[in-house]
Amino acid sequence: MFSEEHKNYLKKVKRQNKIVIFFKIFIILAFMSLWEICAKLEIINPFLTSYPSQIILTIFDLFKENNLLLHIWITLYETIISFLLASIIGIIIASILWSSKTIFRILDPYLTVLNSLPKISLGPLIIIWVGAGTNSIIFMALLITVFTTTVNMYNSFITTDPYKIILMKSLGATKMQIFSKLVFRGNIPSLINTLKINISLSLIGVIMGELLISKQGLGYLITYGSQVFNLNLVLTSIFVLGIISYLLYIIIDLLERKIK
Amino acid sequence: MSDNILEIKNLSKIYHNEKGEMLALKDISFSIKKKEFISIVGPSGCGKSTILTILANILKKSQGEIKFNIENPKIGYMLQEDSLFPWRTVLDNACLGLEIRKEKTEKNKNKVINLLKKYGLGEFINSYPDSLSGGLKQRVALIRTLAINPDILLLDEPFSALDYQTRLSLSDDLKRIIKNENKTAIMVTHDIGEAISMSDKIVIISNRPGIVKKIIKVELKNPGTPTENRKDSNFIKYYDMIWKELDNHV
Ligand SMILES: Nc1ncnc2c1ncn2[C@@H]1O[C@H](COP(=O)(O)OP(=O)(O)OP(=O)(O)O)[C@@H](O)[C@H]1O
Ligand SMILES: [Mg+2]
């Protein structure tokens, strides 16, 4: 049995949880209603801002007539491929840099430049080199994500406790064993953080690519919508995009919980 | 001389960096017999840890001879930090050395489980290190060191991160475990009392470069546990002797 004090404590925790859930839902509902009402009463120009009920209708329309699922799938596919490639390549480069101080010292300035260069500036070049298609988009998203991954993972690899490394050496561990049993294993929490950043970076890269190349995907719908001045389409695409990025985040979050 | 398990002759170590070189150890010589317990004392920075890291094969010596009178000597190295991996259970931490050497057989694993049980960690076998006190963690670290069945244990200030109370009881435990398991040990310590109460021999190193100032054989009237030894009538004699040696060189 719990003490009276503990019961009160539990009550308080429960009440706070309820408040949080209430306001989470309240904010979105209030925002949606306000938007809907203001647009209906023409306080704001519904042609420019659209409104929730119309967005829902547009989603259904797009499903039927414009193959919305295909566009969502294309965007998701490009995001996942570039996310996986960038994460794997970044981790491999980071491990190589960790394994050799010399290689790190040689590559350090290049990495710094590549990491800080705004990759969008390479867009037109990439389109010319790789072609105006899915590959270009994946490549652009990859470029945006891979250097951050490398730098983040390398920086966390080198913070490994030096005493633990000495311990591994004293037990006769090879460099490979030190890496797999200690350096990599010990940095799984920062790996998960990096993956969380990567999923949104890849999505940013993909959308940027689609805006430029404009053939398929949600980025294309946004460009197309703005070109024909169908702002309702633009807002609907952004709305769908928001839902997708939230779902992707949740997937990584679930992964994190499973590992813990 | 054949009963010496390890002989060190004229060991020197130079540290290098871009600014220059530093002679850390010069002509260090001493030897240790099987089942002996030796302590190394000396002022901070005189090179005590350097000796152990060279013996543990983590650093290269510059000059001199290190002769083990056994084939393929196995060395157990234990530091002030317990360095337990927080993502491994107590048992998996203790088995780390076996895993690295690919010797984690069912039989060896059971040996480790028995060691853990024997030395009061039975109920924590599947716990994570976070839930253990500092003293218990250090005990797990000792068992991790013993698990690979080392011929010589090297202990670098194994208690200095602990509070005084835990320190005393853990030195009793450590001594008992090392004796029970028939181990040979070299321990570095700052604490003169710890050195006298635990060791058969004390090597005093002086500052810099580190050279062997004196080697003292400890002979107590009634040797017992380290805590009991601190009350031995010879204890204070050795204490003064070592204190004077160190004082000259601070
Ligand atoms: N990797 C290294 N590179 C250069 N100098 C070093 C290195 N490790 C230790 N030293 C220097 O060598 C000397 C001896 O160091 P060591 O750690 O062996 O001393 P110690 O006796 O263990 O000291 P303490 O009692 O503080 O632990 C010190 O002056 C130290 O600064
Ligand atoms: Mg030291």
Describe the structure.
The complex is a heterodimer of chains A (260) and B (250). The longest helix of chain A has 37 residues, at 4-40. With 260 residues, chain A is an all-alpha fold. Chain A has a single domain (64-259), classed as MetI-like fold (Orthogonal Bundle), CATH 1.10.3720.10. In chain A, helix 4 (68-99) packs across helix 11 (218-227). The two termini of chain A are 30 Å apart. Chain A is built from twelve helices and no strands. Chain B has 250 residues and is an alpha/beta fold. Chain B has two domains: 1-73 and 151-159 and 181-234 and 242-249, 3-Layer(aba) Sandwich (Rossmann fold); 82-150, no CATH class. Chain B has helices spanning 48-55, 90-94, 96-100, 106-118, 134-147, 164-180, 192-198, 226-229, 235-247, and strands at 4-17, 20-33, 37-41, 63-68, 75-78, 152-156, 184-188, 201-206, 211-217. In chain B, a hairpin with a 2-residue loop joins strand 1 (4-17) and strand 2. Chain B is globular, with a radius of gyration of 18 Å. The chains are: A mainly alpha (260), B alpha/beta (250). The A-B interface holds A 161, 163-164, 166-173, 177, 181-182, 185-186, 188 and B 53, 56-58, 75-77, 79, 81, 83, 85, 87, 96-97, 99-101, 148. Adenosine-5'-triphosphate binds next to strand 2 and helix 1 of chain B.
